[in-house]
Design goal:
The complex is a heterodimer of chains A (332) and B (258). Chain A is an all-alpha fold and 332 residues long. Chain A has 13 helices and no strands. Chain A has helices at residues 5-22, 32-40, 47-81, 93-108, 117-134, 145-169, 171-182, 190-214, 221-226, 231-253, 259-271, 275-299, 308-326. The two termini of chain A are 26 Å apart. Chain B contains nine helices and twelve strands. In chain B, the strands form three sheets. In chain B, strands 6-7-8-3-9-10 form a six-stranded mixed beta sheet, sandwiched between helices. The chains are: A mainly alpha (332), B alpha/beta (258). The interface between A and B is medium-sized, with 18 and 28 residues.
């Protein structure tokens, strides 16, 4: 543990420093002195102060929380399914959120990112409930991970099919949707963040408890049952935690690819096989990765912004290839 | 520290397939019971029922005269430990990490890891002779050492009853003997009640106090090795023509196939 602590502290420091740096960056450059004043001597008539407090701080916090949640959910998902390629998106939440968003754009004429949070959340919750019921969560022996992933794939595809049907009907919807589907933390306002906060406050501790509960399941179902573990209950708690984390994040920031898949693979070689360590490590690494992706997207092209979701795909794809070439455990 | 495990009129079926039919059995306290029989005779299912991994269709399993399927799962896990036939540990797990898992039924949010747990884990690793390898990765161990690590895990569970499902399956001759000798030594020192499934009748005859032979979902013979391992019994159970002689070292019955 002694040699691991500096790595963890380093990643945390990197996340926080990047988050603070990100407050400066954007279409309107704002100096550190002004940023500092926005907190100490807030002036509600100053556009700079308002930008910092209403947009940039919520955006940085959203990247930290959203990225951390996706990392944590990815870790639980891979342990739960005993599949190193499992991604929390496999539970169909992203498809549900997408349908919610498209219905809101097409049917209710909502276009701003902030307005899409609630429809996305409703869609994600609907899809998740359907997946849980089809996946056998209510059965006596609890859900079967393989069945659950199959149900997730089926429901996700079905919801995406509806989504595309609507998009074909309406060109305006497609314009808003293609921006949303990239995923990113732009346009998240303080009030969106605050309204989603209660869900995170429930989901993150639940996920950490679930990590502790999942620990004996890594020895196999029989060994875990013989150790007095209630396997079905443990799985249900883990799934609820994953769905809450992903559903909330996809509602806030759209479907950001790769964090849930990639982060546990980065953490495992450093922190070892323990589920607790993996979960906490993935939370911290995920937060770091998202805030770095979000910040890089603002500086990599002068005068333009690349969404965090696109940045993440740019970083994530090659990293995964590198990891798969270097470490056999990723390649299965 | 003793506990009584028995089953009455146990019947288990999956759909229309009957796996166990009307099986009654008591594990003698502080003795080793070995369950033998041909493939698909229901011996593993019997073991799974005994540690409530499987609910019987009819009849019941009793732990200290209480029906095991109605007891709190954690209480059962403090009385009965099981070494499953197929074990798999996650990559990157060390011997000590595995053995620590054996303390799971003794932990709770209110009762955290203590010095006593630490001592039990150290003792368990020491008893199976892996102290020097405690910090090694499980994936770096040989088959015999791996099985010892798992035995240390169930020892750390600190239960009066120990069930083992084919503990020697993937081991060579020497390690089969070593593992069973280890089980015998542990059983004697701690006064454990042990039940295990074995395929090799000669090993069963050597290490068992009681042999239970199953054939076609039923118990066909039960008793001391000398009573069960006889030429007519082996012929009936396996349909195998053989001679039974006393082994030259200890005089246990030993079968020679024709």
């Amino acid at each position: 543990m002694t040699q691991k602590l500096p790595v963890i502290l380093g990643v945390m420091a990197l996340a926080l420093v990047t988050a603070v740096l990100s407050l400066r960056l954007g279409v309107r450059p704002i100096g550190f002195v002004t940023i500092f004043e926005a907190f100490t001597t807030f002036d509600s008539t100053s556009a700079d102060h308002l930008t910092v407090r209403q947009l940039r701080v919520p955006r940085a916090v959203a990247a930290l929380i959203g990225g951390g949640s996706l990392g944590l959910a990815g870790a639980l998902m891979q342990v739960l399914s005993r599949n190193p390629l499992a991604d929390p998106g496999l539970l169909g939440v992203n498809g549900g959120a997408a349908l919610g968003v498209v219905i809101a754009i097409w049917g209710l004429g909502m276009t701003t990112q902030g307005a899409l949070v609630i429809p996305a959340l409703i869609g994600a919750a609907l899809a998740a409930t359907l997946v849980l019921l089809l996946g056998g969560t209510v059965q006596k022996n609890g859900p079967d991970p393989t069945r659950l992933i199959l149900a997730g794939a089926a429901v996700g595809t079905l919801f995406l099919a509806f989504t595309w049907a609507i998009l074909i009907l309406s060109r305006e919807s497609l314009d808003v949707y293609r921006f949303w589907v990239l995923g990113g933390f732009t346009g998240i306002e303080l009030k969106d963040l605050l309204s989603l906060m209660p869900l995170y406050i429930i989901a993150v501790p639940l996920a950490l408890i679930s990590a502790v509960m999942l620990e004996p399941l890594t020895l196999g179902d029989d060994a875990a049952r013989a150790l007095g573990v209630r396997v079905g209950l443990t799985r249900v708690v883990a799934i609820i935690a994953i769905v809450l984390l992903c559903g909330t994040t996809v509602s806030m920031a759209g479907p950001i690819a790769f964090i849930g898949l990639l982060v546990p693979h980065l953490v495992r070689p450093i922190l070892g096989a323990g589920v607790k360590q993996l979960a906490i490590g993935s939370l911290i690494f995920g937060a770091m990765l998202a805030v770095v992706a979000d910040t890089l997207g603002r500086v990599i092209l002068p005068g333009q912004e690349i969404e965090a979701g696109a940045m993440m795909a740019l970083i994530g794809g090659p990293t995964l290839v590198l990891l798969a070439r270097k470490r056999r455990e990723v390649a299965l | 520290m003793t506990a009584r495990l028995s089953c009455e009129n146990l019947t288990l079926s999956y759909g229309k397939v009957t796996v166990l039919k009307d099986v009654s059995l008591t594990l003698p306290e502080g003795k080793i019971t070995v369950i033998v029989g041909p493939n698909a005779c229901g011996k593993s299912s019997l073991l799974r029922c005994l540690c409530r991994l499987q609910s019987p269709s009819q009849g019941q399993v009793n732990l200290n005269d209480a029906p095991i399927h109605k007891l709190n799962t954690r209480d059962v896990a403090r009385q009965v430990a099981l070494l499953p036939q197929k074990t798999n540990a996650p990559e990157g797990m060390r011997v000590r990490d595995l053995v620590i898992r054996g303390r799971t039924p003794h932990q709770s949010p209110l009762r955290q890891w203590s010095l006593a747990d630490q001592t039990i884990v150290d003792d368990a690793i020491d008893r199976v002779g892996l102290t020097a390898r405690a910090e090694q990765l499980l994936s770096d161990l040989s088959g015999g050492q791996m099985q010892r690590a798992w035995i240390a895990m169930v020892l750390a569970q600190d239960t009066p009853i120990l069930l083992l499902d084919e503990p020697t399956t993937f081991l060579d001759l020497l390690h089969q003997r070593d593992i069973l000798q280890l089980v015998r030594d542990l059983q004697r020192d701690k006064g454990l009640t042990v039940a295990m499934v074995l395929h090799d009748i000669n090993l069963a005859a050597r290490f068992a106090d009681q042999i239970v032979a199953l054939k076609q979902q039923k118990i066909v013979a039960a008793g001391a090795p000398i009573e069960v391992v006889t030429q007519p019994n082996i012929s009936e159970i396996y349909g195998l023509d053989c001679a039974v002689i006393p082994d030259p070292h200890y005089g246990h019955p030993h079968i020679i196939m024709k």
